[in-house]
Amino acid sequence: MAAAINCLFIINKSGGLIFYKDCGSAGRMDTNDSLRLASLWHSMHAISQQLSPVNGCSGIQLLQADTFDLHCFQSLTGTKFFVVSEPGAQHMEPLLKVIYELYTDYVLKNPFYEMEMPIRCELFDINLSQAIQRDRVALLGR
């Protein structure tokens, strides 16, 4: 069976959840749980950067557990994009980069969007859903 993402989080540079999308069939996480998870991930990511013995470490990029994998991409501005996927999911880094490109194209270039605020952009939502669907179709073909 092809691995797929269950949910996507976008966290601003100060650790606030600015976007959450449920993509899986396991049931939607309630708002408080998604806020807690985003805050926890932001803190763990920041701590890992400071504790790493490797100079210039950019933080945790992959967290693997028995029931899920968490893949993270941090932009140069500090915005974090992370997906929770089925265990063993491959090729999540390219998908995260596509999501970042959609974010820059449809959110940051939107004259009505205020930086660091929750994302409410219909074109971003539509294109994000299409990118996730394309990724699922590509996974089924592998």
TrEMBL record:
Q: Name one GO cellular component term.
A: endoplasmic reticulum
Keyword set includes Transport: yes
Domain of life here?
Answer: Eukaryota
> What InterPro entries does UniProt report for this protein, alphabetically?
Longin-like_dom_sf (IPR011012), TRAPPC (IPR007233)
The listed locations are:
Endoplasmic reticulum; Golgi apparatus, cis-Golgi network; Golgi apparatus
- Show the Pfam families listed in the entry: Sybindin
**Which biological process terms from the Gene Ontology are attached to this UniProt entry?**
endoplasmic reticulum to Golgi vesicle-mediated transport
Which UniProt keywords are present, listed alphabetically?
A: Endoplasmic reticulum, ER-Golgi transport, Golgi apparatus, Transport
Specify where it is mainly localized: endoplasmic reticulum
- Per the similarity annotation, which family is this? Belongs to the TRAPP small subunits family. TRAPPC4 subfamily.
Tell me the PANTHER family matching this sequence: TRAFFICKING PROTEIN PARTICLE COMPLEX SUBUNIT, TRAFFICKING PROTEIN PARTICLE COMPLEX SUBUNIT 4
Give the quaternary structure.
Part of the multisubunit transport protein particle (TRAPP) complex.
**This protein's name:** Trafficking protein particle complex subunit
Give the organism the record lists. Answer: Zostera marina
